[in-house]
């Protein structure tokens, strides 16, 4: 019986893909992630793009259960669709860990912007993070790489 390495769902922008709202990426955030990627253990995913939003797109923030753009357009349905697709992918692939972009209205794991488009973050989680956690998937941010490494090593 072969042992399959544990895979991790990762925000595509953290792996250098230009999918952020501004059409940019965050670049590869660590050499350790590069190593996991070379081992085929990372699965890149952007819930916002998967949910049907273009790149680039208007900045969006959570306002309670809703997600709206800076111009007031509601994009909650697209964010929810992307979250559902992320969950379905994790379930299909047996993924139990995710590394998602902190601050994002989709992916924030402990902080998100306050919904007033003033650059102020508050405690909270993004739409995708909340859904994944409700289904038992451990979500980490790029600020928690040592904790993710420990969780993977313990699995």
Automatic annotation (TrEMBL):
Record protein name field: DUF523 domain-containing protein
Organism of derivation: Aeromonas cavernicola
């Amino acid at each position: 019986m072969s042992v399959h390495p544990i895979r991790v769902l990762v925000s595509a922008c953290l792996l250098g893909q230009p999918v952020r709202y501004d059409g940019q990426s965050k670049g590869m955030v660590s050499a350790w992630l590069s190593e996991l990627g070379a081992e085929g253990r990372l699965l890149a995913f952007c819930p916002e793009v998967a949910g049907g939003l273009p790149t680039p797109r208007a900045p969006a923030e959570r306002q309670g259960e809703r997600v709206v753009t800076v111009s007031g357009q509601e994009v909650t349905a697209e964010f929810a669709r992307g979250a559902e697709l992320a969950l379905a992918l994790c379930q299909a692939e047996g993924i139990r860990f995710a590394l998602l972009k902190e601050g994002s209205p989709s992916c924030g794991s402990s902080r998100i912007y306050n919904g007033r488009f003033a650059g102020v973050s508050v405690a909270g989680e993004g739409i995708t993070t909340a859904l994944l956690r409700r289904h038992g998937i451990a979500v980490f941010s790029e600020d928690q790489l040592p904790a993710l490494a420990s969780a993977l090593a313990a699995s």
